[in-house]
Design a protein that fits this description.
single chain, alpha+beta, 4 domains, nine-stranded mixed beta sheet, five-stranded antiparallel beta sheet, globular, cell wall biogenesis/degradation, transferase, LD_TPept_cat_dom, peptidoglycan L,D-transpeptidase activity, peptidoglycan synthesis
């Protein structure tokens, strides 16, 4: 069998949006407004859509998408309606016999139009087109269900091309923050950081195929399935997180409020995107199979120097040789409570810390006028990580609101998503310098 060229995955992503056995015999798919048939090696039409994870994508000698099983055997060739009908008609309306070897090297015996040609370079073919996720409407009323309300307040449509780009950046240590399928400032800043780290720039439009090739070869497709476990459903969870610090201090833990919130953070996703990809999912039910993005693992290395860029709202971590190890979108201070200036150092790192609120040393929150101890949890004021700095009461920490990173202000500290703060905490040690620049 001819070796396939693996470089694009549009049909695989499209299949994620369909049931595993959807499509009856002879029923076409639709992609980019065109009818697309999945033609089996014997010339018949596939009467099902292969289940996600059971096949991989490649290209045949003419550059057409093909589906292969894990042993490299041809499952189907993707054909336009015109191509399929031309071949079908050449056999009097019947499928080509299996002996003729559809999809194999000898298919040119059936029709000269399908004679093999050298496979195209990865960037010679049409650009991959991910299906658009449905629009995510703004809630009509405040969410009182106990789940954290999404920060998105306008109707927005997640672009799966942007999701793939965000996953690519996440895997390469230049965090885009929350993966939400929206091309915003955090993504653009991550692209610039990627160019600094790798020495090459990525054009989100022109380099879609490069991004997909990298994802498929390193870490797998940007979207995969996940089965909710009994542990996921069990929690513990809290009904809601109050805004008042006095009420927070009465909770035994600042836990997640729902399985969907926990899973969104686990996979670095916007909770609204998770629910859009799984509109009918019961997240509280163990065994439920859902679609999630596939972010990267934690970056490894020893960070020797950190730059907190107030103007860019971005944090850069460098090794001892000056190489960029990781970059993260950040919320850094505000006009009322600015971050420090100059250089400080890391003093200690705390995972799942308590939070001590002192209105005389910190800011005034509500009517609270006494010292309060708020128990740990991802929805605590500093998330699940606290990297204390040598300037008292200042630190680098996580957040209960990852979708607001880089878009709001803080009380003088450097705020990251919980997963970015956890990654950074694993690479720093006491004595690392942190330089604040304007």
């Amino acid at each position: 069998m001819k070796k396939a060229t693996f470089y694009t995955i549009p049909l695989m992503i499209a299949a994620l949006a369909l049931p595993a056995t959807a499509a009856h015999a002879h029923e076409p798919l639709y992609k980019n407004g065109r009818q697309i048939f999945l033609v089996a090696p014997d010339g018949s039409l596939l009467d099902y859509i292969p289940e996600y994870g059971s096949v991989v994508m490649g290209r045949d000698g003419r550059g057409r998408p093909i589906l292969l099983d894990r042993n490299g055997n041809l499952v189907a060739t993707e054909m336009s309606a015109g191509d399929y009908r031309a071949i079908r008609d050449s056999y009097g309306g019947a499928p080509a016999p299996a002996a003729n070897g559809w999809g194999r090297r000898d298919w040119r015996q059936n029709d000269d139009r399908f004679a093999e040609t050298p496979p195209p370079r990865w960037n010679d073919g049409p650009r991959a087109a991910f299906p658009q996720a449905p629009a995510i409407p703004a809630p009509a009323n405040p969410d009182t269900s106990g789940e954290r309300p999404a920060a998105r307040t306008s109707s927005a449509k997640a672009d799966m091309n942007v999701v793939a780009l965000q996953v690519f950046l996440d895997r390469n240590g230049t965090s885009p923050g929350v993966i939400d399928g929206l091309m915003g400032d955090n993504v653009r800043k991550a692209l610039e950081a990627y160019a600094e780290k790798s020495g090459r720039a990525i054009d989100p439009e022109a380099d879609k195929e490069t991004i997909l090739q990298s994802l498929s070869l390193e870490g797998g497709l940007p979207v995969r399935t996940y089965t909710i476990t009994a542990e996921d459903a069990a929690g513990p969870y809290v009904a809601s997180i109050p805004s008042d610090y006095g009420e927070k201090a009465q909770l035994p833990a600042l836990s997640y409020t729902s399985v969907s919130e926990m899973l969104a953070e686990k996979f670095h996703m916007d909770e609204a995107l998770l629910k859009t990809l799984n509109p009918d999912a019961d997240f509280s039910r163990p065994g439920t199979v859902i679609k999630v993005v596939t972010p990267g693992g934690k970056q490894k290395g020893a960070v020797a120097r950190i730059i907190a860029d107030k103007g860019r709202k971005q944090l850069f971590a460098y090794d001892a040789e000056g190489g960029l190890v990781a970059a993260y979108p950040a919320t850094i201070g505000s006009n009322d409570t600015p971050s420090p200036s100059g250089t400080v150092t890391v003093e200690r790192i705390a995972i799942d810390p308590n939070y001590t609120y002192d209105p005389k040393k910190n800011f005034k929150q509500g009517d609270n006028d006494r010292v309060l101890t708020i128990n740990p949890g991802p929805n605590g004021p500093v998330g699940n990580v606290w990297i204390a700095l040598s300037k008292p009461s200042y630190g680098i920490h996580g957040t209960p609101d990852p979708d607001r990173i880089g878009k709001t202000s803080s009380h003088g500290c450097v705020r990251l998503t919980n997963w970015d703060a956890q990654e950074l905490a694993g690479m720093v040690s006491p004595g690392v310098t942190v330089e604040f620049i304007d």
